[in-house]
Amino acid sequence: MPHASDSHAAYFAFRALLLGELRTTVLTGEQLCEAGRLIYGRPEGLSLYGIPATGMEAAGIRLLGRTTIECCVDEYAAAVAEALTALHATVADGGGDTGEPLVLDLFCGSGNFSHHLATRLGVTVHAAELDPAVHDATAHNLTRVDTRTRLYLSDYRDLLGKHPARGPRDTYFVEPPWGPAFTPAGLDLTRTSPPVPEILDDIRHARAGMPCLVAIKTNDHIAHDSLAHSFAGHRHLRTITPAATLPHGANMDFHIFRLDGD
Ligand SMILES: C[S@@+](CC[C@H](N)C(=O)[O-])C[C@H]1O[C@@H](n2cnc3c(N)ncnc32)[C@H](O)[C@@H]1O
Questions:
Q1: Which of 54, 137, 145, 175 is within CB 3.0–4.6 Å of 62 for a Cys-Cys bond?
Q2: Choice from 70, 112, 162 to test ligand 1 binding pocket (greatest atom count within 8 A of CB)
Q3: More confident residue, 183 or 2
Q4: Which domains does the chain possess?
Q5: Ligand 1 pocket mutation pick from 104, 107, 151 by most atoms within 8 angstroms of CB
Q6: What predicted TM-score, i.e. pTM, was given to this entire model?
Q7: Atom 13 of ligand 1 has which residue's CA nearest to it?
Q8: Assign residue 109 a region: left if phi > 0, alpha if psi is -120 to 50, beta otherwise?
């Protein structure tokens, strides 16, 4: 049986390849299964839109190297969607004409989180993706899936500008690229691109003082207490911690906050 540190070394080497040389390359079925094995311990652990890695090639799913590393897989996206659904039930309805809360996925990547939220909440989710290669692969994938996700090739600020606040159940998913914010010292949310505090300011300004919910993905090793600093003055509601499959610092956590107005 291979030693855990061998498979962790293989994970970090594969991660570097997917974020480097294969960044905008559509992965083969074999590479997707390898990613599932190295990241989640089994090929099927990499599963998006309800389709496991073992079936993605046959289903015509296109995943780029970077998105394979950055994505929120079904198991995690479903757990966060479930938690948000429960929280929505506790917040008074302040819906607009359609009665639907506004749900925006500001850095959508694969769009899998949007897909799960749209399905679980029964709403249209508006999703922004700035990288044309990621956008095109995701647009293609979403045609293969029954979803109420509306995808835009757009900067998240333009999406915010187009969608004014509807009510206190409005929900934003925030997951900017980590880049140099992710180091052995942990994930510094004030150094993501853009920095999380700046994104939260943009959301608050777009809402003219109306509170909302914000969900964010982090790793399991936050540097400099930067999550608490980024959300200072706002209320922490939930943290979702999937079972760890990688060394400390490389696993994912999700946090939900209530963002209060100005
Ligand atoms: C960490 S990934 C998000 C992964 C996503 N949650 C998923 O489940 O696949 C961040 C994504 O945001 C995109 N992005 C970066 N800057 C952006 C911006 N200013 N506006 C919108 N999208 C942006 C990147 O191209 C990348 O695909």
A1: 137
A2: 70
A3: 183
A4: 4-70 (no CATH), 74-259 (3.40.50.150)
A5: 107
A6: 0.95
A7: 107
A8: left
